[in-house]
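Re: the multi-chain job from yesterday

Posting the exact lines I submitted so nobody has to dig through the queue logs.
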Amino acid sequence: MLRPMSDPATATVDAKVARPSLPELFFSFVGVSLSGFGGALPWARRMIVDRRRWMTADEFNEAFSLAQFLPGANVVNFSVVFGQRFGGAPGAAVALAGLLGPPVVIVTVIGALYAYFGDIDALGRILSGISSAAAGLIIAMVAKMGAPLFRRGLGFAPFVAMVGFVAVGLLRWPLPLVLIGLAPISVALAWVRR
Amino acid sequence: MTDDSPFGPLLTLASYFAVLSLFAIGGANAAVPEMHRIAVEAMHWMNDRQFADMYALAQVSPGPNVIIVTLIGYHVAGIAGAAVATVAMIAPPCIFAFFVSRTWDRFKEKPWRAAVQAGMVPVSLGLVAASAFVVARAADHNAIAAVLTVATGVTAYFTRINPLWLFAVAGAVGLAGYL
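And the result, structure tokens for all chains:
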């Protein structure tokens, strides 16, 4: 499997390039998943760009933007894209297993504990505080995602975002229907304004 | 649950999450309103508070937040439910991502590639905003809770504080009985 570099020249010059082995891929993503409280992206960047130097910052951004606009969890997609580039199908499988294996086991245990103790009053009060804060985190994320769009003055973007918000959030229309209607319109508008 | 056959709930989980997974553009958060619609409003697997609890648990657990589906699956059908919901939510986008990532670089110079990417950004923005609204409405039942949500949002936007601290403060406010 070749390492696809955007510029072939850098591949030969570049001394930084260390190709991760499959065990390295697996344990790196285990590390990302276990440190990834409240979003694994910064940890993935730290591991891949800063510590292991498997990608440059630009390569990371490009791979991540692909992972972001594909359906599914961003960091999960990223593990597949990254693993695929460095190790084909086995690489993708190993990176994904490292990212998801430990959290799924932990969360299943948490789910079992919640089934037993979910009715305890104190736990319920703590969780209701945390879920209020979690809602605030999503609002912050919306603001961070939205700020560059509005700054750039992309005319159609706020309109599309509002329609999506109203249809899914307020009217509670099924997501697939909204997307099938809205996504082509938004891509067409982006195409026209290109 | 009204399902009689032992596979009833598992099949329901598998089909709902497999379809949903391919429409989760913008990550797990974009799919939260639909998860809520299915789990609370359509299937009555749980109430609003339980959904908010599970969202909170997924947030404070290590790993990607999409594992809220593991919790929902466990709630519906135990260990098997957790496994089925997780695989159904993870596998289809991963297979898709695998094949796209093998070909995507080839279209680097194509203008439609840029249009697709630029067009999907505001769509996912709208979906994540909807998710903020749905989670806030499920979680906030009084004015103090709403203030907590806004204060957390402002803090997270303007600082780079680790979210675990925000969760700790909010959990303490909740424990003290203000919510």
